[in-house]
Amino acid sequence: MVSQKSKNSVKTASNKYTGDQIVVLEGLEPVRKRPAMFIGSTSLSGVHHCITEIIDNSVDEALAGFAKNVWMIIHQDNSVTVIDDGRGIPVDKVPKYKVSALEIVMTKLHAGGKFDSRSYKVSGGLHGVGASVVNALSEWMKVHVVRDKEIFRQEYQRGNPTTKVEKADLPAVYGEPDIPSKFKPRIISGTITSFYPDREIFKEGISADYDTIRKQVKERAYLVSGLYFHLLDTRDGREDHFYFEGGISSLVEALNRNKIALHDPIFIQKQSDSIEVQAAIQYNDSFSENVESFVNVINTIEGGSHLTGFRMALTRSINDYGKKIGAFKNGDESITGEDSREGLTAVIYIKMPSQNLQFEGQTKTKLGNAEIQPLVQTTVNEALDVYFEEHPSDARKILEKVVLAAKARLAAKAAKDAIIRKGALEGASLPGKLADCQSRNPAESEIYIVEGDSAGGSAKQGRDRKFQAILPLRGKILNTERARLDKILEFAEIKDLVIALGMGIAESLTPEKLRYHRIIIMTDADVDGEHIRTLLLTFFYRHLPYIINNKHLYIAQPPLFRIALGRDVQFAFTDEELEKTLKKYGTGKIIPSISRYKGLGEMNPDQLWETTMNPKNRLLKQVTLEDTIYADEVFTMLMGNEVMPRKRFIQTHAKSATLDV
């Protein structure tokens, strides 16, 4: 079945949700001993993981067909409250254990209704760590259940109940003065969970980042069409409300917001026994691929069997249509998977019984269910065949796009093969301007990509030759957002960079041949330097994402100021650091002599080493990718062909810009 708009076809679970459906697998003891095994990290990302686990419990009620709203509040003290208007966690005693179902759910690992298909058909919570782990990692937790016209309450400390499950009045969260009336829902039934992350576990801090939570919630709003999300941060008054009737088709349109779409989103949906397959597809005029994959409400950022099946079906359907209408001159011509992904924006979304889910790894980033691949492949293949027949205009636009990509691929093959051949580890094949390091161990080797010959000369003289390589760039590189790979590789500076890294590019990528595990961009602290850095980031993001995803990319932080205090010389990396230094020394008899560096070339080799390249003193920013949707949108807006989005961005942020004039 193919349509232009998404429909919310969530299968409802049984209305009978009672204590005898709660199953206990094991206790909570391992959680506090090894928290990272359950939430991935004890940094701030672990706090965010805990918040989304509680939110996902509420989302599961919506997937089951009961909840219509989810409220999330960050309080002044950094505690968090999540509210839903679902059925409410059962409070009756579990016959087998003679303890309240609420207490078991909140204090026993892997306990809940998701292990019983009668209570939840679809859930993100089976391999999710669940409320019990969040409870174990919280200084305190309070749960209110509104059920059967009554309110029940239980409190906990670090996973242990401190009260019995007892009847209560409305929770205090409704009366807090810093919460607007719109965030004081009078729910007839549902669950209200408040918790305070344990500072003994999360030693780096417990102050949740609103933007991170906002992104995760917005993502879920796209996936569960018809569910309202309400967010409030009482620390600064920020709030957001999300509701998307269009589901994943709306998400695809959002991903293509700053691009020129070639057709309306193609929406595919099919229910096969207990598994539902959804896909939304829309091509644009760019050269990059942007495909998101989900299982229930879990973002499978590493893909898996569902993504593999989708890609195979897409390539086959386009090939079949091209052959059918005679688009290929020779009978043996066809497009490849790489061709079919150029300019593709898509979302593949699977809903399936929680108890059958198989993920590779505790962090749930890759779907492992082998049976999903043929199901998705058949579903997408059949649906696209029908769609192409019924929408020949859209089908031809897509075919023209991928055929053009195939021609570009063939034209670029010789150039790419030449670069890959030269990208071997032999020193004779490396670019002449590369000052390589002595070490051949990638784990201890690093390369500085330096702006200009002057800075490159200082860096070559000041470096530690044992493990530091220098590659100077002459001028600004090509904007790779607006060019195909064959044109990109014709640009000398990029070609030299690819050869120096040694791992190839595109379909010939060989990650194990990467010659340096720290790739450091070092440019001047001015507008030109920032532009060059942005151009390099665009190249890595679009064409060597492996470098970013595996945390090999860094940005050097050269100092802005040199402060002479008699014979003593200090360096300041920011205006704030300069002010602190002046406050500390400026009141003495010696008036500091301050010099502002306009470029790396103004530093002598010793200064550059001591401030920017010496591992003992330097500051490096690691480039990571936390929000793929937002990152794609920003790169498209800043570096793409469309002028108006970029103009609006400049007008909006002009006053906050720091200019070196």
UniProtKB/TrEMBL annotation:
Key word NAD present: no
Domain Toprim: 445-559
Enzymatic reactions: ATP-dependent breakage, passage and rejoining of double-stranded DNA
Any GO MF annotation of the entry: DNA topoisomerase type II (double strand cut, ATP-hydrolyzing) activity
First-level EC class: isomerase
GO-annotated biological processes: DNA topological change
Keywords: ATP-binding, DNA-binding, Isomerase, Magnesium, Metal-binding, Nucleotide-binding, Topoisomerase
Family classification: Belongs to the type II topoisomerase GyrB family.
NCBIfam families hit by this protein: PRK05644.1 (NF004189)
PANTHER family: DNA GYRASE SUBUNIT B, MITOCHONDRIAL, DNA GYRASE/TOPOISOMERASE SUBUNIT B
UniProt-recorded name of the protein: DNA topoisomerase (ATP-hydrolyzing)
Naturally occurring in which organism (per UniProt): Candidatus Gottesmanbacteria bacterium GW2011_GWA2_42_18
Source taxonomy: Bacteria, Candidatus Gottesmaniibacteriota
